[in-house]
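G., the chain you wanted modeled:
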Amino acid sequence: MGYRRQLLAVTCLAGSVLAAFATPARAAQPAKHHTPRHQTSSRNVPKTARTASRATVTPHVAHELDASAAETVSVTSSRRALNGGGGMMRVETAPHAVQTVTKEFINMRAPTSTALDLIQNLPSLNVTMPDSSGMQGGQIQSRGLTDLDMGLLVDGAPAAAAKYLSENVDSENLESVSVTPGSSATDLPVMSAAGGIMSEETRTPSKKRGGLIDFSYGTNNLSREFLRLESGEIGHSGVRGYFSFSNTHARSWMGAGTNQRKHIDFGLQKDWHNGSNAKFFLSWNSADFVIDNYPTSDQFFRYKHTGQGYGRTDDRKSNNYWGNNNDHWNQIFISAPVHIVLPSRLSLDIHPYFSFGQGWDASPGGTTTDAAGATRGLTNYFLQNEYRSVGTVAKLNWEIDRHNTFSVGYWYENTQTIQSYPTSYQMADGNAPSPNWDAYQISAGDKQTAGYEIQSLFVHDTAKYLNDHLTVDAGFKFVMTNIWNKDYYGRQEANRTAPLPQLSIGYRINNHHQVYLNVEGDYRQPSAVDLGWLYTSVAIPKNQYSIKEELGYRYHDDYIVADVAFFNYNLTNRIVDQYVGMNSYKPFNIGSQQMRGFDVMIAGRPIHGFSPYASVEYLHASQDSNVFDPYLNTMLHSKGTQAVMAPHVIANFGLTYTYKGFFANGTVHYTGPQSVSIAGDQRIPGYVTDTLSMGYHFKPFMFAQSPTFRLNFTNLTGSIVRTGAMGAVYSAKDPSTVHSGNMAPYTGYGNSFMVSPRFSMTGTISTAF
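Predicted structure as tokens:
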């Protein structure tokens, strides 16, 4: 039945897409009324006034170049007029905080970059990544919350978690990445938005045939090949598209092991003269990579002081052989938004989406004696036979008059995971076999299915007065969820609701100054995978709920772009996640938490080729509840202590320089000291990371329209620092099982950490054609 539901979901989705691209002639006729003012063409599908909007800047605006030229640093003049700091900041007009990096900055970074690499210098974020090849994703800390509290979107559809962010889209096909740290639009399909939204916006297919090719080689035997082919407009249909493929190979920077990733992106778009449009994006990702051993503090200091590593071993006879610690995963992702302009000042947005994945994580399971008396290594698995999510958002918009636009909508999503925990013999060559191979399987393990069904109604109104100087956004979203978990011991389910009011007010004083106020409620419910780690004997955690206020000021002119935002959060039923190994997490509740502080961003427009950028955040986050530690069977006196994974200060500096064909960008990031346990008895000190990018655009030659060479460096100083905790723990005294190289498993204590990868360099040659 599960596969029938998948087939039905894909069939319905395909039908929606085909219907959109084969719209009847009536829809293609020019509208007899003017297009609503708020429905300008945008690549982000949820077309609401709360989306990160591009401001209209009168100076410096020139004609828009064709998208095929977007692969060079010579982007259009209108885009440059909206950017500061070499694309590290963009002029925004939404009545809430928005932080964006644009194509100008993306083009200077290594093609292996994920969205996490690109946003790590935004003021409200601390980003940690375990490798330099872009295959493993990472984690986000944002205003005292984490990426598990955030909605992560590609073209407005829910995408892979930050730990697997590389599954989403190749960086060559990214147009921009935006973070709204304190808000979430009413029409977005997210169930975890307490920490805001990170939205990846994919490219618009070119109107001309052509493509892009690049090749990268770097540290740790990194090699990557990428090819994109553009169809241009197909006949006179108005349909255009692209297809791209990339292949990445690298070895682990710590310990032994190799990682492999293959990825496909496919995009289609059609625009009609009356303002209607349809977009289709599909990505497929296949990855095999080593699951890192994340060190305890003892392992980290041993490495820092003696050089003894904690990674996987190349000894095939060891239970900790890298081939016995790997992640194997296949993922498909589809987003297909349609915007239809209707008569009588009406328009309709329909946005179906679908994702499906299968795979497993392997980890050492110790040793055993088989029937022949031989000692054999074991492998434990986290096996997901299915992770499936299908949903749609439908929204009807009515432009009541030139000042007021009203929207009403419905969101439906069904998500399910089918997972089990088998055990197998390790293969003779040391590798982990497929957990489904009967010749090696010892036990099929416990099987669990978990999931949820969401139904949500929302209304939203955007009003503009005083010659559009005053913008008022008001909305309300009511979410109804049936959430369930089934295992060997039984079944449990719960019906949950979440009322989510929102109010944003923005006032543009003149062409240079704007102030805004944003107030809203957001929530987070446990994900399907979270539930899969909880036996039915454990109650389903309550939804986390937050009330957030934000007050901001923006300024921009011909020389600088600046943004200041003050915020205050109050959370109840705070959900944090403990890392349990095999790249998986288990949720638990720590009561109430409060966060308040401010973000500052400032960027300069190019002056003699130099474009500076700086940002800083101050955060005061405190735990407001005492918490019971089940490992030590004691109540932790955590009330009033610094909240876990919430550093007081985050600061960034960037500088971009361009001269003729030459370009360079350097960044420095600082994160202050932070607590990594609920009890506050384990901390990590502040640290600094840095990056450098430089390259040259050569003149067109034969078929090569934009031959470019660039070098990208990370961790220039070779710092050995912990960049963040893998998750939350109750106390530094909590025990856990530790693996390290050829050492036998032993008991470690406290948290485990991500460590900044050593110095790396990547060289890339590329050209559009």
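The helical segments are 2-21, 25-28, 77-82, 103-106, 115-119, 297-306, 528-532.

Shout if anything looks off.
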